[in-house]
């Protein structure tokens, strides 16, 4: 028929694979040149069996969605992505029902190979994931003390400033604990710096387990550690420091033996800035050392 030939000539100009299926029988009645060159000639064969080796219609066919209740084309188009296992390629499928020139209701499908696009998208997704992990690692490295795994001095300062800001702006209590390993220089002198580092690495796990949610432990420098305690009053922070002191005193490290720590505890006051808060907690810590070590003092 001349009308069929006209349809087919137009479809042959399209560089993407197109095939036409009789809606009543699911038989392929036409495929354009691009489809024929890639998939071969399947005219007269059932589409789901010829193209996908399926005994029943494909779940992604969409034909019912393209028809009216009376079995006529409803003018709608469905566009979706589909992976074809027969050639291991991704396609963007565009399907639509229409009336073929000979009067049959058909479904035609245009298949655009998007495998390269999908590969690029996957590579881009992997690159984004790698970048996100790299950024997380950079953040971790920039905020973590490498020896102990605790918050480093820079990050601790950020926490202190946040605690002071919370008190100034919202009236949220904020307390700070500073602890120092007693006689740490003697440990280094007697057992060597490697043993001294082992002592420093022994504390973080116990300190993390001993502080409540919301409190953060950080290494201030050398053998000094800080515990940032947002929301805590002085009395509550004192009890926490005493709990940590007793826990540390119960540690028995191989070759080094038992260790103890001295603690200073302060609560932020009106007008405190970072310098005054640190000065007060430092004085409280040294008061504990002057009074015999292995004790908690407030300031």
CATH architecture of the largest domain: 2-Layer Sandwich
Shape annotation: elongated
Tell me about the largest β-sheet. 5 strands, antiparallel
The structural class is alpha+beta
Q: Report how far the terminal alpha carbons are from each other.
A: 101 Å
Q: What is CATH's topology name of the largest domain?
A: Alpha-Beta Plaits
Helical stretch tally: 9
- What does the radius of gyration come to? 37 Å
Strand content range: 15-25%
Number of domains: 2
Uncertain residue ranges:
none
CATH class of the largest domain equals Alpha Beta
Q: How many runs of DSSP E, i.e. beta strands?
A: 12
CATH level-four homologous superfamily name of the largest domain: Reverse transcriptase/Diguanylate cyclase domain
Strand order of the largest sheet: 2-1-5-4-3
SSE order: HEEHHEEEHHEHHEEHEEEHE
The level of helicity is 40-55%
Mean pLDDT across the residues is: 88
């Amino acid at each position: 028929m001349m009308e069929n030939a006209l349809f087919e000539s137009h479809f042959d100009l399209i560089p993407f694979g197109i095939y036409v299926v009789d809606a009543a029988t699911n038989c392929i009645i036409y495929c354009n040149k691009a489809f024929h060159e890639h998939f071969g000639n399947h005219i007269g064969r059932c589409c789901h069996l010829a193209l996908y080796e399926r005994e029943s219609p494909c779940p992604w066919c969409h034909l019912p969605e393209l028809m009216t209740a009376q079995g006529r084309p409803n003018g709608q188009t469905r566009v979706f992505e589909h992976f074809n296992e027969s050639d291991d390629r991704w396609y963007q499928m565009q399907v639509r029902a229409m009336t073929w020139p000979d009067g049959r209701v058909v479904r035609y499908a245009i298949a655009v190979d998007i495998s390269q696009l999908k590969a690029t998208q996957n590579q881009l997704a992997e690159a984004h994931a790698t970048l996100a992990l790299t950024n997380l690692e950079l953040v971790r490295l920039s905020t973590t003390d490498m020896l102990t795994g605790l918050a480093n001095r820079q990050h601790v300062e950020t926490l202190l400033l946040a605690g002071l800001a919370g008190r100034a702006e919202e009236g949220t209590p904020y307390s700070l604990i500073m602890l120092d390993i007693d006689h740490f220089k003697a440990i280094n002198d007697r057992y060597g710096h490697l043993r001294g580092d082992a002592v420093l690495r022994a504390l973080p796990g116990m300190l993390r387990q001993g502080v409540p949610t919301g409190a953060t432990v950080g290494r201030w420098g050398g053998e000094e550690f800080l515990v940032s305690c947002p929301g805590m009053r002085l009395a509550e922070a004192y009890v926490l420091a005493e709990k940590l002191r007793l826990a540390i005193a119960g540690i028995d490290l191989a070759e080094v033996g038992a260790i103890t720590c001295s603690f200073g505890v302060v609560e932020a006051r009106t007008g405190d800035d970072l310098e005054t808060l640190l000065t007060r907690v430092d004085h409280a810590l040294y008061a504990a050392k002057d009074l015999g070590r292995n004790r908690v003092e407030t300031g």
